[in-house]
Amino acid sequence: MSEKVHVLLSEEEVEKRIREIGEQISRDYEGRSVHLICVLKGGVFFTCELAKRLKIPVSLDFMSVSSYGDDTKSSGVVRIVKDLDEPLEGKDVLIVEDIIDSGRTLSYLMEVLRQRGPKSLKLCTLLDKPERRVRDVQVDYVCFNIPDEFVVGYGLDYAQKYRNLPYIGVVEL
Ligand SMILES: O=P(O)(O)OC[C@H]1O[C@H](OP(=O)(O)OP(=O)(O)O)[C@H](O)[C@@H]1O
Ligand code: HPA
Ligand SMILES: [Mg+2]
Fold it and tell me: What is the DSSP-derived secondary structure letter of residue 129?
């Protein structure tokens, strides 16, 4: 079965905003390098686009966490499906995520990663849905604040579909 999807943020809008955030991060980390943590699977498209825009040295690692399964509601339990390959000690770490919704995933992840002794730990997200927050999360870089709707595209899925859309769309359920 296929759902209707309408455009919320066009490809051009998303790419323009990622370039802006990339410039801001490059300025903020000037003279340093940044260790990007891509939160799989949703964060993969944003991480690639953002990394290409950074003008500072970049290293990359990947972590996979899951709490939504195939549902539009979080299960409430965050599971580490794949851990990082490298230690974080002494590194300037920037977590790159597709969306902060309830905040459960990122409040859990920030706590876990903080204990690994990074020099600094910051968070960058493509989308933020502040209305839905149940856990406090300090977000350092936000590309777009969005209303309380289930969105897909640019890495975000509905039951594993639509991650490859080059724009952000709303699923009409
Ligand atoms: O703020 P929250 O309510 O925790 O929701 C945000 C998280 O949920 C989604 O991941 P999901 O668990 O669906 O895994 P996926 O990235 O593999 O799709 C999304 O990619 C975020 O990681
Ligand atoms: O709006 C959303 N869309 C897709 N995945 C998500 N995970 C949390 N919120 C969302
Ligand atoms: Mg998902």
Answer: -
